[in-house]
Specification:
Blueprint (H helix, E strand, L loop, with lengths): L16 H8 L1 H13 L6 H14 L3 E5 L2 H12 L5 E6 L5 H8 L3 E5 L10 H13 L3 E5 L11 H11 L2 E5 L7 E2 L2 E2 L6 E5 L13 E5 L4 H9 L21 H12 L1 H19 L12 E2 L5 E4 L5 H10 L29 H7 L2 E4 L7 H14 L3
Parallel strand pairs: 2-3, 2-4, 4-5, 5-8
Antiparallel strand pairs: 1-9, 6-7, 6-10, 8-9, 11-12
Helix pairs in contact: 2-9, 3-9, 4-5, 4-8, 6-7, 10-13, 11-13
């Protein structure tokens, strides 16, 4: 055997769910076994316990667990009676689920531009979008700020605008659950919050899952009715249109164990982000976190000049360093959503950033050796 042959390093996981699984070990096995033993696979006791602990963690009065983050958004719009002729304001730089649920209830999504530094909703663009909606004969009803990549949107500005125009605030913290704004956790803002427990999320289950968080006592029974086919006194009385939106008991059992280590994982993500930023700030635009906020770093997303990103991705791939691009096409350029109204003159910041962003591996179990490998590969690829 040639001793000079270079040994190839194993690829670095973009998100390492297996490392977390190894850490939790028999705790997950035991939690699932308890559900298998009691056989209450739908609405079992773990669901109620998880809802209580989730609400406590977020600082909200109530949590209603459900089948996905998308269904969480839809359940809220359905519970509020949002309908045809209503306008719902969404950032255009987000995953499609944020806006997808709006046409489900017959309403119209109106797309808003984002801030260049935080990637989150631009309050000035929101006000412009409200005027566009009014001119088109729509009734402004809901604004959906998204906590993109793990950082909360500017809740001070957005809540002030919502109050001025009579809008309900539906926070989409699918990527930002566990982060803070002015010392308060996401999930405690707005009239209601939707979050996701998709496996790759900072707090993820082993399948699909989601939750609604709210302080509105009256909203909770309506959400629970919507979640169960619009049931009334029992499942054979249907008082409103609903869905099958329940969280499986096994997923709730898994999430209880993951929630127990979540704060520790958030701190680990922060340490990774700090090392990345310290090592890369001289060669690319590293993420900016608003001084009023903390991030859970669902993604660590850098910005590069147009035309550089794809070359970086290819070079890193050869070194076993995966990357991802969120999002190549803003919502208003997606074929399914191109007919809906937008604020301003084409949402220029969304369009600019769509060609600049690229995300590096990020998870709580990314050790310093792996971080250094990512950093060195990025620097080599960018000629630094």
């Amino acid at each position: 055997m040639n001793s000079h042959v270079k040994t190839e390093l194993a690829p670095i996981p973009f998100v390492d769910i297996a490392a977390q699984r190894a850490r939790l070990g028999t705790r997950i096995d035991d939690a699932v076994a308890r559900v298998l033993n009691h056989c209450r696979f739908i609405n079992g006791p773990e669901v109620t316990e998880f809802e209580q602990q989730l609400a406590r963690f977020a600082g909200a009065k109530h949590a209603v667990a459900c089948s996905s983050g998308t269904d969480a958004l839809a359940m809220i719009l359905m519970a509020w009676g949002i309908k045809a002729g209503d306008a719902v304001f969404c950032p255009a730089f987000t995953f499609c689920a944020t806006a997808e649920v709006v046409p489900w209830v017959g309403a119209t999504p109106v797309f808003v531009d984002i801030l260049e530094d935080t990637f989150n909703m631009d309050p000035a663009s929101l006000e412009a979008a409200i005027e566009v909606a009014k001119r088109e004969g729509l009734t402004p009803k809901v604004v959906v700020p998204v906590d993109l990549f793990g950082q909360p949107a500017d809740m001070d500005a957005i809540e002030a605008i919502a109050n001025a125009y009579g809008l309900k605030v539906l926070c989409d913290t699918a990527q930002g659950f566990g982060a803070t704004w002015n010392g308060r956790r996401t999930g405690s803002f707005g009239a209601a919050t939707a979050t996701s427990f998709f496996p790759a999320k900072p707090l993820g289950c082993y399948g699909d899952g989601g939750a609604v968080l709210t302080d509105d006592d009256a909203l909770v029974p309506v959400l629970k009715s919507v979640r169960e086919h619009g049931q009334g006194v029992d499942k054979y009385e249907n008082v409103r249109l609903g869905m099958t939106g329940r969280l499986d008991t096994i997923q709730a059992a898994v999430l209880l164990e993951k929630l127990a280590i979540f704060e520790d994982e958030i701190a680990a993500r922060q340490r990774v982000a700090e090392r990345y930023s310290a090592a890369l700030a001289d060669i690319c635009a590293v993420p900016a976190v608003d001084p009023r906020a903390t991030s859970v770093w669902a993604q660590y997303t850098i910005r590069l000049p147009h035309g550089v990103r794809d070359g970086l991705a290819a070079a890193l791939q050869k070194e076993g360093v995966p990357t991802a691009v969120y999002y190549r096409l803003p919502m208003h350029h997606q074929p399914a959503y191109a007919q809906f109204p937008i604020a301003g003159n084409g949402l220029p910041v969304c369009e600019k950033l769509a060609g600049e962003v690229i995300s590096l591996p990020m998870h709580p179990y990314l050790d310093e050796a792996a971080q250094d490998r990512v950093i060195a590969a990025v620097r080599r690829a960018l000629g630094a």
